[in-house]
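Task: complex structure prediction.
Instruction: return structure tokens for all chains below.
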Amino acid sequence: MHFPKSRKGQRMPRFAAHPYVKENNLRSIERNTKITVPSPKRGRKSSSNKKKHRGRLISAGYLLPSAVGVLLFFVLPFLIVVYYSMIDNPISAQFVLFDNFVMVFQNAAFIQAAKNTFTFSVSAVPLAVVLSLFLAMMLESKIPFQSQFRTFFLSPMMVPIASVVLIWQVLFHFNGMMNELRSIFDLDKIDWLNSGYAQVVIVILFLWKNLGYNMILFMAALSSIPKDILEVAILESASPFQVFIHIKLRYISSTILFVTIMSLINSFKVFREIYLLKGDYPYDTMYMLQHFMNNTFSRLDYQKMSAAAIMMAIVMVIIIGILFLTENYFGKDVEG
Amino acid sequence: MKTIEKMCQKARRKGILRVIIMSLVTVTLMASLFGCGKSDTAPEEEKDGLIYVPEYQKLAFEARYISQLAPAGDEAYMAAMVEDKENEGYKTVVYQYNLLENTAKELSIADLDGDVNVNAFLISGDGNLVMVVNQYQYEEDENGEIVDSSMTMELRRISVDDGTVINSQDLANVVDRIENSYIQYLCEDGQGNLYLCDGDQGIHIVDKDFNKLCDISLDDWVDGMAASKEGDVYIATYNENGMVLKKVDVAAKKLGEAVEGIEDVFGNVGYYPSVSKSLIQSSSNQLKLIDLETGTSEELFNWMDVDIDGNNIEIVGELSDGRIWTISREYSEEGDQYELVYLTRKKASEVPQKEEIVYGALWLDTLTRRAIIDFNKSNDQYHISVKEYGNDFDGSQVAQFNADLTSQNCPDLIGLTSLDFSQYASKGVLEDMYPYMEKSGLDKGDYLENVLKAFEQDGKLYGIVSQFYITSTLAKESLVGEENGWTLSEMLDFVEKNNPENVFMYGSRDSIFRYCIYNNIDEFIDWETGKCFFEGEEFIRTLEFAAKFPEEVDYNQEEEGISARLRSNKVLLMENTVSSVQEYQMMNGLFGEKVTYIGYPNSERKGNLIQSSGGSFGISAKSKHKEGAWEFVESVISKEYQDSLVEDNYGWGFPIRKEALEKQFENDMTPEYYEDEEGNKVESSKTTWGYDDFQMEIMAATQEDVDAVRGLLTSADRLSGNVDTQLTNIITEEAEPFFKGQKSAADAAGVIQNRIQIYVNENR
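Output:
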């Protein structure tokens, strides 16, 4: 607690600075003691400012470790990536501005990778959202073996990625189970991982791995919808479809956004599975942007890698921005 | 107005904050990009720290070979083979060596003449010598042929004062099947018991009176045995975990558990008694003190840092004045060269400072190690330290190397062996060395220009070798003609026309396929247009051709030797090297007629490939010590060094300097003679060469032989092994389903085309 001081440096009586002392009383004290006292209004404001300032300092103190972490591990590397994207190579380091972006944009491998990544995300992400929502709805209704189904769909999350890849190799290898099954029906073998089917296999792998997690998120969102609203809708003779469209979908819109963003991020990370399945240079339909970046990095083409990374980051920011706007538009009335 | 002022203040504060944040970010960014890594000068702690400084001395006696060395405090005992002028031969002499004064005193040891060899010896706790000696005895018939021979092995205790034998024991009484044993190690424990070890058969323990106590059997080969300061005896063996140290437990008559805390070491490993700790451990790289009580080890120094080749270390010990002493041996045909080195701990600031140059390589080869040590010893301005990244089994070593090359941590000198030279050259990692050659007054016309060309890109010299050899394919001249080089289709036509049992002696479908493709990959890739041709007829024909050969080779199958099969055209080709004129002579003998080094299939008919045999060097474009790095490169291509490669017969392969190469050819053509019984001068063979079951006495080379080799050496201008393993791995992986009959050649080729096309697109 700070007390205002008199001109002579004497400490003011405690009551003189109390914000609840009436202004008139203060004025009479001022007259009698011939000392200047800040008005209670100004005192309150000053104290409030100090409190605010102190609060900010404390907040900043708490935020500092995270801010330093973000600065060191996100902002700084990103700035370095920006730097690398504008030099000719990491050895001579001559600035070339946007030449690398032009070069990468004209590179057939980059175009192929961007096309594949786009196709994969566009097909896998909506499927991951719709199917997991469907499963969540299904498990929300009273069906037998509900908990067993839930465990079943969640189990892929517990399997290490190396084992997942092994399972997929056993299934989709040229001599794998899928082709064995086909041979029962006298169908020709398909080279699943070295043909146009390769991306389908990866989409299935992605869904198998991610549906359970998304489903749990949707189940949590569905259970938090106010029951009274649903009851009113039923009393008003709303059909289940109408309830789903007009109530449930609107209440879980923020979860849909979250699941979509998470699925989108995960769809970019599918490189890990493909890399373990087919290495640095898979069949062209499985070649993703991260392959391009990983390979250019190992060949010391940091400038190409950085330019590609920045372009990818820009696209990601735009997509996530659009998703936020969409969610804001559809879900604003239920979020208050 | 006040509000505006406040806003201005706020904005100013925000502005200041923004400036501070931006400055912080910029400073950190700049620091990370430019400021980190090594500095020109050594850090303070290092400057004021203690370092070992070597002092090289000649041994006080001349010996052809030192067979045994035993440390004893400030003295050492050495059994050496020295020249016996009286009998015009060599004899074993034991020296008592005063290490503090570097003087040697010859000891007169009884019964140590004739055919007696000292296998192992030590200085016992009672101050006497204990040694294992063996004597080879034989009987000759009237023609001088050996008709009967035997070997005796004896354990002797000998007085150091007068050389008399105090006690002896025939080791046949101690070691079972003594005729198959060779005692290599001898140690004494604190109680005076003696431990005799014969490699892998067992440890035989006797008491101080040479009475047998017990035998301990061994599962692994013993790589060293030493008595610790505490008086226990330990053996070093290799098992699945690398090198381990185990105590010999006499009471339990077995080996103890592996001592914990001993790191795996490799190369020339030896254990020696220590004064300050339990044991001294020397390996090819470092010298360490081991404390067995705490299970810890302390690295004293890296051998390269004190300019000593760790592979040449014979013994190490500690002196009472704190110095370390060691004897290193360098092999020489004229007699081994021994050097006594004292290593004194001094303050770094008291030692003249040199500029540090870092040599970075996946591993350090013997010739480069020797060249660096010689450079460090002779150069007053620069000192080269070595950074080995390790064998690149999983790609992580090359990744680390690449990361260092792009940072401030980059080595100044780059060992290019097993690295992607063309990638580094094209990315600007390497410095052009032609300007340095010009500045140093070196004429590139003095060197094999085709070898320099192999390391060129856009007329700039990014790498260089001191010594090289050629890898190639050999065939009979009568079958393929005398011209070098062929295309893949010519090679396939040739084999199909002659219809042999196999293309090579041990040709499997994989090896034949690799042979056809891997040194010829550019035939299927047009880097200019970015098009691949793996779906073309040529590649599919190659796949089908390779598929005709067996999947696996049975090496145990008893059949004719390689020479017979080559001569009868059952096998047509042979992949081999040309590392000397003698090797060329031997190959002509092996084939039974003149051979042509036709090379690997190549669209430009350039299939003879250059391979470095003594390191290939590049200078980092980011180095701060380019002049120093060049000084080293200059030293290995200098006239003196290149001539020494020929004169000392060091390493193998051919020198890159033309003059030295001609000297080597001259040596190869100089005949050697002996006098027959009638006193006639008869030409003798220079050496014997062999391959598989074939052996041949090599006489002096003819001018024709030398011309053929010279023609080969001056025509090759491509480097061997410069193909990205990514490409070869894709081809191998996708060709396999075809070889196993699961896919058609066209389908396999289609997948290869698809995957490699991405690689090509990515790298354009």
